[in-house]
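Hi V.,

You were right to ask for the full record rather than a summary. Here it is.
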Amino acid sequence: MSDEPFAGLFKESNVFAQREVLSPHYIPAHLLFRDSQISEIVKAITPALRGERGRNLFIYGKTGTGKTSCIKHVINKIKELSSVKARVSYINCRIYNSRYRVLSKITSDHMPLYAKRGYGIIDIYERIINWVDEDGKILIVVLDEIDVVKDLDDLVYTLTRANSDIKSGGIAIIGISNRISFKEDLDPRSRSTLYEKELVFPPYNSVELSTILKDRVDRGFKPGKVDPAAINLAAAIAANDSGDARLALMIISKAGEISDEKGLEKVTGEQVREASKEADEEIAYELVNTLPEQQKLIVYAIALLSLQGSRYKKLTEGTDTYIFSGEVYNKYSSITESMHKDAKTSRWYRKYISDLEMQGIIHTYESGKGIRGHTKLIKLAYPPEKIKNTIEKTLFKENEAATNGGAA
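Predicted structure:
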């Protein structure tokens, strides 16, 4: 077989030097503009490093605000310490999305010989308790995207109540979520067992994003291959969108790809503008797919109304069109009914709208007097056609699969 089809794959890049530096998963030695947040994380876990039971810590913030990077940065620093009684399990709850999987991940992290299939949840729980008790260690369980866990009440209750069964040592939880109100979804029994400190990560502004990008570009690209104006443009686009550093990195990285594909010697604003369209679609796809089902249905209702038109008068400011919140709720209720599901109450609906706005998926506007009284108006932050198609490809296929599976 000729290797001609692969010839282009091994060609040296015109612009990239160390492309991995531009990945959102890359953890630099120093995280810019997050010193205070890292300091707060260290303060929260310091008791655990001394072998004392620490407070649980909950971290909130929009996607791309550095939550995971800061936690991983601190974990790496802990691993460099000697003679500490703390052990850490970092768990991506999008993968380990149930109590059983989380507890199994803890055993595989620290007791690999025990981590075999076939053990029930009680056996795994008791083994973790005995392991902590052996030498009075503190287990720090980091639950990234904690709100994705299917049986979150059971998990929180199990981990927090474990301290009552541990004679020496303890378990501390660090939860990370994009949704500041996720705890309100918990059963009161679970909430009552939490004694936590909260930390909110603010979005980056355009100046901060520009500095972050320049730092990565200096190492990720060859010297002089990125126009400074292109860096500022990518930062401004991301800041205007949601202050998402991942989006900024994705834009500049894709701009480099476009330059390579076209055989260009430099990344300019033209490539950044082209890259931003692709990156925006990927971010939208990722954001929507990480939403809980009820929030997906609300976003779907907004997308449908945006495309189909409203029964009521819409408020238009320039090119922005907002839809009445009450109409969105009615559409959402209709969708859930058609799927034989129960719609959440209007109280929960309002909380979900706040969560969606915090994540940058929607924009809201409080109307003044004269527009059907005081009401909230809503607009999608992304093209409704793309949002609609994304949800239809994922949520409805998942429900169809579940229905077929149940019928089998």
